[in-house]
Structure formats: structure tokens, C-alpha cells
Amino acid sequence: MADPLYELLVPYLDQRSTSESIPTSTDRTTTQYLSHLSTLPLSSLTIQEPQSLAQSAHSTLLSIQSLSSRSHAAVIASSDHFASLQNTLPRLAEEAQELQNDIPKLDGRVADFSTTYSRSIENEMLDRRKQALLLERNADRLSDILDLPTLLSSAISSSAAQGASSVTNYATALDLYSHIKRLHLLYSDSTLIGSIYAQTNSAMQDLTSHLILSLRGQNIKLAAGMRTIGWLRRVAPEFEVNDHVAGNQEGLLGYLFLTCRLSTLLATLSALEPLRQLADQETETRLRKASTSTNGEKSNSSAWHGGQQSERYLKRYIEIFREQSFAIVSMYRSIFPSTTDTSMAEEMKLPFKSTELKTTALPKSTSEQEKWKALPSALSTFPAHLSDLLFDTLRQYLPNVLDRTSRESLLTQVLYCAGSLGRLGGDFSLMLTMLDPEPDNGLDDSEESGDSTAREWVEVMKKHRELAGRLEALASGVGSMGKAGGSLRMKPQQ
Predict the structure, then answer these.
(1) What phi, psi does 352 have (nearest 5°)?
(2) What is the torsional sign of CA 203, 206, 212, 214?
(3) Residue 458's pLDDT is what?
(4) Residue 262 CA to chain centroid, in angstroms?
(5) What separation in angstroms does the CA of 5 have from each of 38, 229, 280, 363?
(6) Angle at which helices 378-397 and 273-294 pack, to 10 degrees?
């Protein structure tokens, strides 16, 4: 039905439109409308359908007008763009052709880049980039490493300000130094680590100086001395072992310790300078009167009756000497126990056994020069040096003291000092025999002869031994009484 109806209505279509605008019979909209017309009665076709078509046309016109008022700008822009497509599309085609021609060149450049900057091939620029990236990643670590010399210097300066009591600062400085040495061993080729290690060595020299100065302190205790020696062993290990101190485990540290303490002793004794000056004046006066009496001008007025200032000086000198010398030797034996336990035969390497007087052959590789090259232990000669200092002073000022009681008191004080060092293996009591006899008082008919004055030390030693024996007997008696009382208390329990 649709095709005959379409052929019937074709002559009545709008003749003003072109043939291209006339819908065909196969058009979907045309087919639907023709099917709709075939279902309507004749009265609807003549009355209602024209009105419906007019109404639809009017609503369509209103919709077109509304659309044009709302979207006229977009429509105009679309029209302009559509007009420019005839120029844009050919240019796009040309550029696409150029891109297609440049793709092989781009592929070649990419291949060259991948070949040049490949990880399997060494490249200076890549190495610089890697180093830059590595530096960026480790910037914080490098900053901490660069701060190590500053931290070490601050720890050393603060420890020097606080003295030997600054245990924490010294320990921190030594820990930092150990860490820097470890870094230097791990990265010995690094210029940065080498520079930091050089700065650290300069700072550690200052620390070594501070530690040595702390050994010269006036009232250094045993704990402080042991800590200081332990720190010196870590800071300056070259002091520990030396070719000239072969066989002595203390190395040069023993000599260094005794030298520092001896310097402190001399500085303490130098505080007696005012008393020494008065004693020197008495010495000059005595010598002047002695020379006057020698020249034949002997008289009672030229006799020497002084010595009080010399006695005061010697008493104070011997007291300081006894305290300081005992403290030095006992502290040395506590700090270096391994060296003080060796016997004198082992120190001097005598070729004799302890039980049989049979010689043993020395090693053939040891020559006489190498045998005597090794120095003995520092403590083996130090008490002798101390006794020389004491007896030089006694020889100079003891002749000024003529009062026998005062002289015996001074010699007894010397014996106490010798006994104090004798408990540590440095008894020098027999050196009293080397003292000069009591000088003349300027008179020919002196009451005591030269023989009696020469044996003055004998009487002093006898009195000293008698007193020591009484004290020992008293101590043994108290001990025996304590043991007896303990046994009596134990019997009821049995």
C-alpha cells in the first residue's frame, strides 16, 4: 500500500525543492508516515491531518528559532571552522607526510642515544651524573662527616677546661677519633677523609698535650692517673712500644709518668723558696765564719750558733718529699703492675738461674750492643734519683744545723722517709753513711771528736730500730691477744 500511495502523492510534493530534497519511498520516516496515512479514515485526512501537520510545522519552527537564538554563536563558529577545513586538512596531510619522513631519522637518533648512554659502556657524563646523584643522596652523611673535626675540637677544648675530672669529654673525643681512624682505613683513597684525618691528628696532638699536662697536676688521684694513662695508650700508641725500651711493657709511658710527677714534685718543693733563701743566708754566714776561723782569727764571736732556718726548711722539705715520693712510686706500681712484678734478674737479663749457679748460653743472634741497647724499667732508677735529690739538699743545708737534737730529729725523719719508700722497694737508709760528718762550730776544743760525729748516723739508726722493734712487738702483742680472745670465744661453741 505504501508504494502506490507514495506514487500518488509525489506530484503534490513541494515543487520548489530540488529533486535531491524529495524523500524516497525507502526512507524510514516516509514509510512510517505513509503507513500512518493508510490507517486514517477519509474524514481525518481532509479535516484533522492538515491541522496536525500545520501544528507540527509551527512547533518545529518555534524550536528552530529557539535553537538559533541560543546557539547562534556556536553555529557561526562551527561554520567558520568548517570553512577553514579546506585549508587545514591539506596542511595536516603535508605535516603528517613530513612526520612520516622524519620517523626514520628519529629512530636513528634514539638508537644513537641508547648506544651512547648505555650502562654497559663507560661514559664520562654518566659518571658525573651518577656522582652528582650519589652526592645528593648522601648529603646528610657528608655533612655529619665534615662536622667530626669540629666536634672533636670542642670535646678536647671542653675537657681541657674541666681538667682530668672530665671523663665524659675525654671518652667522647677518643670515640670520635676511633671512628675517624676507622673511616680512614676503609676509605684511604678519599681526599675528603684524608683531610679530615689530618685535622683530627692535629687535634689529637692537642689532646695528648692536655693529657700530659694533667699528669702534672698537684693532687692527682690514682683513678685519675689510671684513666689518663689509659687514654694516652689510645691516643699515642707509639708510647706503648719502643725499640729502646725492649722488655719493658710500660714502654715510654712509664718514663713519661715519672717525669711528669717528678716535675710536680720539684714545683711543689719550689714553693719553699722563701725558706730556702733564709737557709742560704745561714750557709753563707757559716762559711764566712768558718773561713775567718781558718785564717787565724778564731774567737768566740766567730763561732757558728745558727741553723734554725735551715732546720725549718729541711723539715718541710723532707715532709713534702716523703709524701710525694711515696705517692709517685705507689701510683706507678698500681698503674703498671706487670712491670713491677718482674725480678731484677729478668730486667737485667742475667744469665743465671735462680736455684743453681750455672750459666746459660745467650742467643747467638743477640750481640753485646743489642744487649745493652735495651733500657731497664723506669722504676729501677727513679728511687735512686729521688734519693740523690734529697741527699744533695741534706749535704748543702744539714751542716748549718749544729744542735744535736735537731740533727737527730732530721735524720730520723729521713729514716722514716727511707722506710716509706722501702715498703715499695726503694729503701735508701744506708745512704746516711755518705753524709758528711757534723761540721765544727768554730772552736778548736770541741766536745765531740771527729769519730763520734762520723758515727752520728749509727746512733740515729739504732734508736730508729729500737722504736720500730717496740712498735712491732706492740702490734704483734695486740694481734696475739686478738687471736687468743677469738679462740676463747670459739670453745663454748665446740
Answers:
(1) -125, 150
(2) negative
(3) 63
(4) 29
(5) 8, 128, 161, 143
(6) 50
SS (H, E, C) the chain: CHHHHHHHHHHHCCCCCCHHHCCCCCCHHHHHHHHHHHCCCHHHHHHHHHHHHHHHHHHHHHHHHHHHHHCHHHHHHHHHHHHHHHHHHHHHHHHHHHHHHHHHHHHHHHHHHHHHCCCCCCCHHHHHHHHHHHHHHCHHHHHHHHCHHHHHHHHHHHHHHHHHHCHHHHHHHHHHHHHHHHHHHHCCCCHHHHHHHHHHHHHHHHHHHHHHHHCCCCCCCHHHHHHHHHHHHHHCHHHCCCHHHCCCCCHHHHHHHHHHHHHHHHHHHHCCHHHHHHHHHHHHHHHHHHHHHHCCCCCHHHCCCCCHHHHHHHHHHHHHHHHHHHHHHHHHHHHCHHHHCCCHHHHHCCCECCCCCCECCCCCCCCHHHHHHCCCCHHHHHHHHHHHHHHHHHHHHHHHCCCHHHHHHHHHHHHHHHHHHHCCCCCCHHHHHHCCCCCCCCCCCCCCCHHHHHCHHHHHHHHHHHHHHHHHHHHHHHHHHHHHHHHHHHCCCC
What region does 163 belong to: left with phi over 0, alpha with psi -120 to 50, or beta? Answer: left
Whole-angstrom Cα distance, residue 104 to residue 98?
A: 11
pLDDT tens digits, residue range 367-412?
544 544 556 677 888 888 888 888 888 888 888 888 888 888 888 8
Contact partners, residue 457, CB within 8 Å, separation at least 6:
411, 432, 433, 435
C-alpha cell at position 488: 676463747
118 class by beta-carbon count within 10 Å (0-12 exposed, 13-18 middle, 19+ buried): exposed
Positive or negative CA dihedral for 420, 422, 428, 432? positive
Cα–Cα dist 311/305, whole Å: 13
Q: What is the rounded distance in angstroms from the CA atom of residue 44 to the CA atom of residue 30?
A: 19
Sign of CA dihedral 353, 356, 359, 361: negative
Give Cα separations from 427 to 255, 322, 380 (angstroms).
21, 12, 12
Instruction: Find all residues with CB under 8 Å of 79, minimum gap 6, and list them.
Output: none
pLDDT tens for 29-77 read: 888 888 888 888 888 878 888 888 889 899 999 998 888 888 888 888 8
Contact 352, 359 (CB under 8 A): yes
What are 149's three cell numbers?
673535626
- Cα distance from N-terminal residue to C-terminal residue, the chain: 148
Cβ neighbour number for residue 405 with a 10 Å cutoff = 8
Cell of 128: 658525573
CB 208 within 8 A of CB 228: no
Contact 146, 196 (CB under 8 A): yes
Which cell goes with 389? Answer: 735529690
Q: What is the pLDDT of residue 241?
A: 59
